[in-house]
Design a protein that fits this description.
The protein is 48% helix and 19% strand. By secondary structure, the protein is α/β, with parallel strands linked by helices. The structure holds nicotinamide-adenine-dinucleotide and zinc ion. The site of nicotinamide-adenine-dinucleotide has 29 residues, from helix 2, helix 4, helix 5 and strand 8.
Length: 366
């Protein structure tokens, strides 16, 4: 088992990564010295596979768990689900010392974390992420929340879990498309912070695509270390944490204009990161060879790297980018790369260049 420490003073916690961790959920929770009541929040897909082992482990360690199952998919990240979860917690009389276990992907993690942040003004929670995206990204860093009709993640909080348990065995049942989407965030960490990780991904991608446990454990731990370090320096996104949004300005806008239907998040940010790499070549001198390596790695990971938009769709994309909640004073700010492993945030980019980056690639490949 690998352990990554998230350094946030009194709110510090450990991320444990390895196979078979679900079976140790109860013992791990017992070490946190919480109350004996807890609620496992999960979704229909994850619940039918993993609620039973999670429950057995909690019961064996002396806990009294309740089960809350929400529908699978993004629609569960709503105020309505928040209310349903809190109603059930209240009906079952969970109290201040009780805790929540978020068992599922990023949707369950964000929702259950927000339930934990708000029920009785905050009770403890433990993340058990079961998608690659959740293991390397959403379960780390304490952003929790739900969506509004007006947009994603518009209501939420910064609320840290007490522990994150990444059981690599749970990834075995993840649909291929979801798994590939998670790789888009993995590759992102190489581009924004760590050229060594990027080279390692180029080398180890075949093992990663086969979900080889050793390769996965090493890569997930590295990604968590990078995210933990960034979050440790800037917990509430007043500055440096923005680098985690590399590729997300265009990615989020693509998701929004396709009404969160056509692309998974990882697919949209794969296109967004390739476009950001092209912009970086024009504005920050990112070598063309690096643009090429970035594009190739996303392609090898089974992800889309370009999008064809007509004039109307392009107009919508720009409008969506300007609505992004990271925009301040009407100005779209990009994260761009100087080289693989080093990025700069807060870059202003003229609309014309964005359009060009989406159209053409200054690639050396044929
Ligand atoms: N809080 C953050 O910092 C942060 C960061 C990135 C993304 N997010 C959020 O995360 C969400 C996306 O998360 P996601 O990609 O994990 O999606 P998800 O939670 O919807 O999971 C994807 C699908 O896989 C299923 N699934 C999950 N684990 C499985 C398993 N082990 N086996 C089989 N099926 C499984 C789920 O039921 C779902 O159908 C978005 O809402 C996004 O906003 C949050
Ligand atoms: Zn993302």
């Amino acid at each position: 088992m690998r352990i990554v420490h998230v350094p946030l003073a009194a709110r510090s916690y450990a991320i444990k990564i390895g196979p078979g961790l679900l079976g140790r959920l109860g013992d791990e929770c017992a070490r946190l010295k919480l109350g004996n009541r807890c609620a496992v929040i999960t979704d229909t897909n994850v619940g039918k596979r993993f609620a039973k082992p999670a429950f057995e482990s909690l019961l064996k360690a002396g806990f009294t768990p309740s089960l809350i199952v929400v529908p699978a998919g993004e629609t569960a990240k709503s105020l309505k689900s928040l209310q349903a979860c809190c109603d059930q917690l209240a009906a079952e009389r969970l109290e201040r010392k009780s805790f929540i276990v978020a068992l599922g992907g990023g949707v369950v993690g964000d929702l259950a974390g927000f339930v934990a942040a708000t029920y009785l003004r905050g009770i403890a929670f433990v993340q058990v992420p079961t998608t690659l995206l959740a293991q390397v990204d959403s379960s780390v860093g304490g952003k929790v929340g739900v969506n509004l009709k007006a947009g994603k993640n518009l209501v939420g909080a910064f609320y840290q879990p007490r522990l994150v348990l990444c059981d690599l065995d749970t990834l075995k049942t993840l649909p291929m498309r979801e798994y590939h989407a998670g790789l888009a965030e993995v590759i992102k960490y190489g581009i924004i912070c760590n050229a060594v990780l990027f080279s390692r991904l180029e080398r180890d991608l075949p093992g990663l695509l086969k979900r080889d446990p050793k390769t996965l454990a090493a890569v997930i731990a590295r990604c968590c270390e990078i995210k933990a370090a960034v979050v440790g320096r800037d917990e509430t996104e007043s500055g440096q944490r923005a680098i985690l949004n590399f590729g997300h300005t265009i990615g989020h806008a693509l998701e929004a204009i396709s009404h969160y239907g056509k692309y998974l998040h990882g697919e949209a940010i794969s296109i967004g990161q390739v476009a950001a790499a092209n912009l970086s070549a024009r504005l920050l001198g990112l070598p063309i060879e690096d643009v090429d390596r970035i594009t190739t790695l996303f392609e090898r990971a089974g992800l889309p790297t370009e999008v064809k938009l007509n004039a109307t769709q392009r107009g919508k994309l720009f409008a969506a980018m300007k609505l992004d909640k990271k925009v301040s004073g009407g100005e779209i700010k990009f994260v761009l790369a100087r080289k693989i492993g080093q990025v700069k945030f807060g870059c202003q980019v003229p609309d014309k260049l964005i359009a060009q980056a989406l159209d053409s690639r200054p690639s050396i490949r044929h």
